[in-house]
# Entry
Amino acid sequence: MKKFVPSLILLFLSVSASAQLINRFTWESNPVTKAVFGPNAISVSSYASAATGGTNDSKGVNPGDGRYDINLVLDGTVFNVPAIDITLDFKREEAQASFYYRGSFFDFGMNGGKLGVNFMVTAGSSFVAVNSGNIYSVPDDHSYHHYRFNYDDNTGAARVWIDTTLVYTYQGTAGAPLYWTGAGNVTVGKDMDATGRNIAILDNLVIQKYANALLPLKLLSFTANAQNKYAVINWNTTQEINIHSFLLERSSNGISFSSLKSIAASSAYTATNHYKFTDSLLVSPVAYYRLKMINSDGSFTYSNTKSVNVASTNASSVTVFPNPTADYVNIKMNNTVAGKYIYTISSVTGQVITSAAVQVSAGAQQIQADLTRMALKGVVLIKLSNVQTNATETFTIVKK
# Structure
């Protein structure tokens, strides 16, 4: 009786550009230890051979006419990878069979006709064992089906497919590689004997180092809005892994872009990350913005392009004087339209000293704020907010 112990998970695959191929076997000729790509197997059962009856009129591995397991042994050291992708074609003629087996570290296969996978992931200097349990009844139809296990250490996610059906998903800790310390060699076809029927039952084994998470982050939002005479760009992300930075680019025509601001990524995977930049040096009334999201390996992708028409906003020209001051400060405005404003005076630590709402008409006007009752001296912040547009400007003065 085969017993499941920590293993990996499958996934439906053809050789992918997002993964690094380690080993591939098609078994079109003998000896079956010979790989099409990567290292040859160390050994195999003396009864196993390449025989007709593989997938699509090809050849596959036949365990032989006795009750002997295939037991194709591979050097385990080349498979000590942080993330892996395993695919194969298998025709069920029995109830027990391990597709890919590394003792207590990894076992992907069939137990009592039920598909399952066990594997280990790193947790500090130790490991966490993951056991899928019975996840699917392996078809007993004497036909080939495609099985795939996939684990991505960047996201901590593992999945198993049969043909094109996703039958199992595991979500672990992002950034946790597979654990292989002391794992030993790999056995393909353990307990796989076809019950002595002398037919091919295994074909097309592909093992890859999985690398599908070059830019796993999710860009939740990317906005660019006019606020007074400025453009304010905001973006929110989540699932940041291996993200180096964000490069905000600007254009006057939406075609030719130049670098505007580079901002380091927070690299917080589970959190929602907020970013903001205010462009106060616009080169034209209409500006276009896009976000270049740069991976730690130098690869990148772009967001959609956003445009801002600053000339169409209800802009106001604002100055604050005198600076420094001992008693009063004047907020001089030149509004294109009437509106309601709120000004707040606070310390640099955020303590609000005074706040007031004022209604202003179109054109030039001046608001005077009394600072004589304010005991605080030194740097003071004055924030002016337009109630209608939510545009905000902040000024710094020195209180003597």
The two ends are 86 Å apart (CA to CA). Confidence is low (pLDDT under 50) at residues 1-17.
